[in-house]
Specification:
The chain is an alpha/beta fold. It is built from ten helices and ten strands. It has two domains: 8-85 and 163-251, P-loop containing nucleotide triphosphate hydrolases (Rossmann fold); 97-162, no CATH class. Helices cover 37% and strands 24% of the residues. The radius of gyration is 18 Å and the shape is globular.
């Protein structure tokens, strides 16, 4: 019997982006299989967030295309992509500070492809808060929570939309080691439930713990890709981003 080919969740095809005369992304291409966790690393200014913005509809490329679940979505706005099953978080959490944590997540439940009735949406919001370990913070105003917990509220809201693809932009910034371990376990559980993830983070330990592959971006170009254990020793990646000291301390030398 012939092997079943993996299904592609996301295809990024030769994306270029300019800010004025400055080239931010240069012919970036990659694909992401359904159920895969793909990491994206690179120094500040490499183009990671710009790439996330293009995939999620917040910015348009100068050229190239994005295909999500078999449909070209390059020109789609964020709300249409959300209804199609693409959700994301941001480097700076985009929450409603004067609303409670539960109300913030409830907004995500109402963005599902088929808006549920209020009692069902409330139950979904509570469940998503429990997934990120914040069930007891439901009545708390989101703006009163520490920044790492605000990130988790945003993650719970994204999950409440029932996405097929989830983009996480620096989700673990400011996390303690305990919170980081809990997050890694949660992401792996979500993948086991069928969610596809694309994440970027400066905490390479998180990417090592959860990703199947990692792409390294530098000056708007993919300079390397492969399993995280291989990238940690790639000379181009070490030079551009990780630094020799990281490799020696955490991996026993290059």
């Amino acid at each position: 019997m012939a092997a079943i080919a993996p299904q592609v969740c996301l295809e990024v095809r030769q994306i270029k982006k300019f800010f004025g005369d400055r080239s931010v992304l240069r012919d970036v291409s990659f694909s992401l299989e359904k159920g895969e966790i793909l990491g994206l690393i690179g120094p500040n200014g490499a183009g990671k967030t710009t790439l996330f913005n293009i995939i999620s509809g917040w910015q348009k490329p100068a050229s190239g295309s994005v295909v999500f679940c078999g449909q070209e979505t390059t020109a789609w706005p964020p709300d249409r992509l959300s209804r199609a099953g693409l959700a994301r978080t941001f480097q700076s959490p985009q929450i409603f500070p004067e609303m409670t944590a539960l109300e913030n997540v409830l907004m995500g439940a109402w963005l599902q492809r088929q808006r549920p009735p209020l009692p069902e949406a409330q139950e979904e919001a509570g469940y998503c808060l429990s997934l990120v370990g914040l069930m007891d913070k439901g009545p708390t105003l989101a703006g009163e929570l520490p920044l790492p917990q605000q990130r988790l509220v945003e993650l719970a809201r994204a999950l409440a939309t029932r996405p097929r693809l989830l983009l996480l932009d620096e989700i673990a910034a400011g996390f303690s080691q305990v919170a980081l371990n809990r997050l890694a376990a949660g992401l792996l559980k979500l993948r086991d439930q069928g969610l596809t993830l694309l994440l970027t983070d400066h905490l390479f330990t998180l990417l090592e713990a959860v990703t199947d592959r990692v792409l390294a971006l530098d000056h708007g170009e993919i300079i390397a890709q492969g399993p995280p254990a291989a990238l940690i020793r790639d000379p181009a990646v070490v030079s551009a981003y990780l630094g020799t000291r990281y490799c020696i301390i955490n991996h026993g030398g290059a």
